[in-house]
What we know:
Layout: E1 2-6, H1 10-21, E2 25-30, H2 33-37, E3 46-49, H3 55-60, E4 68-71, H4 76-89, E5 94-98, H5 102-110, E6 114-116, H6 118-131, E7 135-141, E8 146-152, E9 171-178, E10 181-183, E11 196-202, H7 206-212
Parallel strand pairs: 1-2, 1-4, 2-3, 4-5, 5-6
Antiparallel strand pairs: 7-8, 8-11, 9-10, 9-11
Amino acid sequence: MKVLIIGCGRVGLGLAKNLVLQGVDVSVVDNDPAALVALGPAFKGKTFNGLGFDRDTLIAAGIEKCDALAAVTGSDEANLVIARVAKNFFRVPRVSARVYEPQKAKIYRRMGIQTISPVTLGIERLTSIMINSQLQIERSIGAGQVVLLDVDVSTNLVGKRMNDINLPGEIQVSAITRSGKTFLPDPTISFQSGDIVHLLCITGSKDKVAKAFA
């Protein structure tokens, strides 16, 4: 798998190193040579100094053959331009962009560009901690209407089954982690003490999940 990362700040640097550790062929582009040096001599990927939306730089970095691209520069506008060029011109199969402004993130998700908004993720996590401390939001899906939650099984749910939690159109158990192993549960499997339940939930039904797992 070939991945192209545009931007070598804290996010780009960390992402590049993590992907290389997983055996991914990584190329990183940044217009600041010092940022690329920060990857260190042990970095096994390729680095390219140049603007992330410059056609020649992108081609030199291998965009025509890459499987995925992440635009994670410090500028929302640059990230979105890069993402659109990658998706619409170079036809990169998987394109994602880091966008600070939540409204921009929603707009570009509707255009088919997967966006990550640290502001939105932070707000959701802090809200969850303060209001429903037992709910851990893993991520929002789509424009935020659906969230993936991790919830510890409470004493009152031990022995109950998926159908005792599922609410059609609102809450759906998707997986269970038990003794360090995660699996897709059979509807007949009962919850055990120590289980972590991974479920999909529409945003407006988080209170129902909190009550069920209280």
